[in-house]
Prior knowledge:
Chain B: InterPro entries: AAA+_ATPase, ABC_transporter-like_ATP-bd, ABC_transporter-like_CS, ABC_transpr_MalK-like, ABC_transpr_MalK/UgpC-like, Mo/tungstate-bd_C_term_dom, NA-bd_OB-fold, P-loop_NTPase. Chain B: Pfam families: ABC_tran, TOBE_2. The complex is a heterodimer of chains A (280) and B (348). With 280 residues, chain A is mainly α. Chain A has 13 helices and 2 strands; from the N terminus they run H-E-E-H-H-H-H-H-H-H-H-H-H-H-H. In chain B, 42% of the residues are buried. The interface between A and B is medium-sized, with 23 and 27 residues.
Amino acid sequence: MPRYLPYLLLLPATVFLIIFFLYPFTQVAIESVTSNGEWSLANFQKATSHWKFGEAFKNTMLLAALVVPIQLVMSLTMATVVQKLQKGRSAILYIFAIPLGISDLAAGLIWLSIFEQSGFLNSMLVGLGLIEQPILYLSYQSPWIILFAIVLAEVWRATAIMMVIIVAGLGLIPREYGEAAEVFGATRWQRFYKVTLPMLRPSLQTALILRVILAFEVFAVVIALGGTQMPVLMSETFNWQFNLQDRGVAAAYAMVILAVSVLFTLIILRALHVPKEART
Amino acid sequence: MAEIQIKGVAKSFGAFTALHSVDMTISDREFMVLLGASGCGKTTLLRIIAGLETPTKGEVWIGGRRVDHLPPKERGIAMVFQNYAVFPHLTVFENIAFGLRMQKMPQAEVQRRVHRCAELMHIEQLLKRYSGQLSGGQRQRVAVARALAMEPEVILMDEPLSNLDALLRLEMRSELKGVLAESKTTAIYVTHDQVEAMSLADRISVMNGGHIVQSADPVEVYRNPAARFVAGFIGNPPMNFLPAEKVGSGRYRVAGTDVAGPDTDTRIDYAIRPEDLTLAEPGQGLAATIRVVEPLGAHTLVTCDVDGASFRAVIDSDSRVNPGDRLSLAPMADRVRWFDKETGLSVQ
Lengths: 280, 348
């Protein structure tokens, strides 16, 4: 095999990425720090000084802070249960993974059809005689219900991706470690906490980074359920780009999302770092 | 005091029966080796004693206490695993201390025990390392130290040396024997290696197909196998077997020679160990034609044809023999054994 063959084979993918990813990315980055053809931070000033920026930033962080921990606990629990199954393991995995096959907008619409005034929840409650009149849940007067609905939809939609990664990670831990811990007196909880979790760090890293980045990019579910009631960083990017027709500010928003994603990726990498000598 | 009693323990996995009603008593401080080929049920039995597996039937008693319904940690046992199971995310110190920490033992006592066991296993200098920085032999030492630190009444070992290279295995074997004798614990050791079993055991239980075929001290198992299976499994090379034809009361014809044997009406086979044969004058003993000669240094192993059957003998390496030579092999009369053709059991 000629030495250059691997590089030759990688060339199409590399060219593709350069043209369709690196090039537009650089353009957006440059756009965010130029205004009227000059280098400036005006776009960032304009973005952050707008009253919606703080709101969007706060909402995005709040959503991530609510959704990701719930998903972490749920996916760990689900993965542990799936791991223990003798029969029907793949069937359960597939069922758990169904929401993964649905786009985020569709997921938002599914939950909208539950929560809207003429939705399933109201019909059910009226049908059961628990309420007289359909209730307007997703209104500007009840932002907490909107938040709750978004969290619910996000948890429903994207927990499975973490679970799949964690199931794979659990499968990599040899059974003898758990048995050794059991023989040496660890309770079920201690086995999980002192043996499984530390050995699961590489998978947790992957699952968390993936999930946290996606949480910062939350968009369609929020639009479907909250409309303009709940601005997030991504919806503001969209807003500046298409409604306010200011590409520079939209680019600045994109850079903020990138910065936050990179920052949290680094934090997760650091927090769940496994020193080389402590790897299996 | 930790005598172990196994009473009618059976285990099935679905349609497969791994253990058929096993009964066994292991005395306090005894070193018991469970020996058998893979799939014979020896590991299942060990795991049942450890509490990692629940028996389908039967009882397990340790030190006069019925334990088969108790979790492992309440059985007074410690275990050494085949793949060591040394936790990669903990230092050697914390690995050895793992069981003690679970018992919430005071730090000073943890320190004392870890250092004592590390010293015993010659790994004091490794206490701060992680298992990823250790060799297989060192990990094995950590696994043994972790078990010893518990000061258990019973120590269970599942093929602990099988992943080590030959030289290291030899070294660890004698070291293990010394350390365990000193610790005065009852030990159960699972292996498929007959040499390991012979050299370590106070008593060997040979298992086959979920049964214990023979339970006796190593020399007894070697000299007086209770069954043809044991005779063929223990000893390298294993025992030779030849068909015997009854010619009179207690008289048999074996490979063309007349031999005295047990007075029985069942059909039996004649058996002799390869090293219990001597070269004799032609016409005296079994007539053999050499097929293969394997010099082993101290001895020479010859594989011959005797009466159409393959037959092996260990002879002095000074006796110059070649393939095709005809030999007369005289068995030592008191080493000849007889086995029932049907049941495979020893007949005397």
